[in-house]
Amino acid sequence: DSGVTQTPKHLITATGQRVTLRCSPRSGDLSVYWYQQSLDQGLQFLIQYYNGEERAKGNILERFSAQQFPDLHSELNLSSLELGDSALYFCASSVDYTGELFFGEGSRLTVL
Amino acid sequence: QQQVKQSPQSLIVQKGGISIINCAYENTAFDYFPWYQQFPGKGPALLIAIRPDVSEKKEGRFTISFNKSAKQFSLHIMDSQPGDSATYFCAASRDGGYQKVTFGTGTKLQVIP
Fold it and tell me: B44: which residues sit within 8 A by CB, 6+ positions away?
């Protein structure tokens, strides 16, 4: 158990819909990262937050947005969903002075 | 300059054999090089990591070899076991007030009995 909690674990929705994925980092970790992993693909970095502020942005679509709240949990919002958005979405957290990331179990999104 | 190139994409090794996965980086500012192991349906988990002040780090059957001048590092899995079958990601990052971890593209390892 990494200490990072992601909900929901599975989500099935239709094209055009909007979903919110939630992440609770490990206790004490200030940094939260979001990654997308499509079938048999690598980890595509989406966005990073540190203590509530956006710190780095990767290949995140304009239809996607995220935020980190004062209690350090984070949400990833995916809107106008397309079939190609079907993927595993991972949240990771870190103490922030090393590259040691702790990943959650992921949220599997299926868009039908 | 932020890329980390990983090879091979997939690897099949006989039980008891040595699995070798290679990575190369471009950014000389990187100073932390972790390897992550991911089993199907699970999140990646840190396996072993190295800093550039040492050329090798060993933990059990897993060894990282690091070549600073060539900007390359590799993971060796000795006496590979079927339970090692997973996807392995190398990564690189730079310490600082915040850091962005750059991942390689992953290697799917299958250890056959």
Answer: A43, A90, A101, A103, B36, B37, B38, B89
Whether B113 contacts chain A with CB within 8 A: no
Alpha-carbon distance A111 to A90, whole Å? 17
- Chain A contact set for B42 (CB, 8 A): 105-106
CB proximity B95 to A under 8 Å = yes
Contact at CB, B45 and A2, closer than 8 angstroms:
yes
| Three-class secondary structure of residue A9 per DSSP | coil
d(CA A111, CA A97): 36
Q: Do B103 and A33 touch (CB under 8 A)?
A: no
> What is the band of B96 on the pLDDT scale with cuts at 50, 70, 90?
low
Q: Which among B110, B111, B106 is positioned nearest to B22, based on CA atoms?
A: B106
pLDDT tens-digit readout, A59-112: 899 999 999 999 999 999 999 999 999 999 999 998 866 678 999 999 999 999
Per DSSP, A51 falls in state T
In this prediction, residue B50 has a pLDDT band, given cuts at 50, 70 and 90, of very high
Instruction: Give me the residues paired with residue A41 across strands.
Output: none
Spatial distance between the Cα atoms of B107 and A4, rounded to a whole number of angstroms: 24
